[in-house]
Amino acid sequence: MERNAVKYPIGEQSFKMLRKGGFLYVDKTMYIDKIVNGSKYYFLGRPRRFGKSLFLSTLQAFFEGKRELFKGLYADSMDWDWEPYPVIYLDLNPQRYQDDADFSDLDITVDETLKIHEERLGITSPNENLSARFSFLIRKLSEAMGKGVVILVDEYDKPLVNNINDRQRFITYRNKLAALYSNFKSSAPYLRLVFLSGVSRFGKLSVFSGLNNISDISFIDKYAAICGITGQELSENFREGIQELASKYRHTPEEEITQLKRHYDGYHFSEECPDIYNPYSLLQVMAYQKYSNFWIESGNSTLLAEQLKRTNSDLKSLINARCAQNTLEGLDIDSISPLALLYQTGYLTIKDYESVDDIFTLGIPNLEVKQGFFEQLLPWYTSIQKDATRVFISDLRKEMERGEVDAFMKRLQSLFAGFGHDLKFEEERNVSNAMLIVFSLIGMHADTEVRTSDGRIDILVRTVDYVYIMELKYDKSAQEALDQIERKEYALPWAVDSRKVIEIGINYSSEKRRIDGWVMKR
To answer: What is the C-alpha to C-alpha distance for residues 341 and 330, in angstroms, rounded to an integer?
Structure first.
């Protein structure tokens, strides 16, 4: 078979283009059957690049009656008359919503969408106000075609998510969007379906506060796999790509699936959700026949890093959190939860569900997110440059594997030499976060704040030949830190371990803003 004979839709989110161009398409049209026979108003929250735009494009083609595009798919067997409906597709993706001082980017996007339909109908709204024009257009489209209008809004909340750290801009965009979306209620007699996709459910927007019958399907089991790729879909649709990867890396197909699962699987969006692969990364690895942190590298964690620093959040507690569903459902400028933000943006996912107490346990989905997210965060907490992170971590790992304590402690000292002056001055939390990131990236059996019978070990790292027990003090002394290890007998669990135990006391100076000393006992 010729390599890459399968056409993978890299960067293509149009259902029409996928089907006409012969690209690989994983059939998600069974969800259309559920939607058209359900509510009039829907909201779906998923992380970026997870297939939301493609699904909305699929809905657009369906309601426009383009049955030829659905040949061989589930929707083609539906009991549906395939008569076209008027469809308004409002795509808020293209703009950044961070550059214009007059907020004209949103107005321009909406204006261009309205103009397309106004010119097609040959109408001019009696009112220049965008919300009023939107209302007028909905009514005219419905009257012209004799059917209810279908409105699809792609990334309905992008202006808000991109300004979550700027209160003034957030509120301005929220007011503009609230006025626009208020038409979903006032124009109800002229509507067939409203489907919004985005990252978060912003409760103070009129679409949620004004509509009491909107179906939020973000956490519903039967819609859990509406975006993303399940294990079954991987096996059925990606056979050629899996075989090519297996041949390249000298694996069996089963071993290659294990590698794909380790790197890109692990997302869950409801109580009984099957394992979901990140579709963006999966398509990339199939097309380019190499493993990389594709999804992570396609964005940046600036927004997250700023929130973690601003709220002085403890990373360890966030990435192993337990919470109720309502903690994860929404965001707002007045109550920004770092936990909800990490979940909604795809850096955390549901790992377990306790039905008795109705509690979710969260965790990092897979290797791509763990490695990529921490690599992006580390420069925010230390002096290291982003492009030097991987080499730094590799050198640190080798030194720890060889038991070269002075070498890796000097490396850690250099890491904190330029500790950011823009951080809050609760240095202990920021240093702890940086340490967690570093030792998580090392990839060894590393952990922080490990419970013992008489306290907590700050940092515990286990290699093939060594067990490192580290205690970190702030504005005290390295000897005091080492004495605590001895006094509390932190090394006792490894007394009969074949590996060599190395105890290290470390002091961090808030005045010098760096590690200013360490002592060890072998």
So the answer is: 9
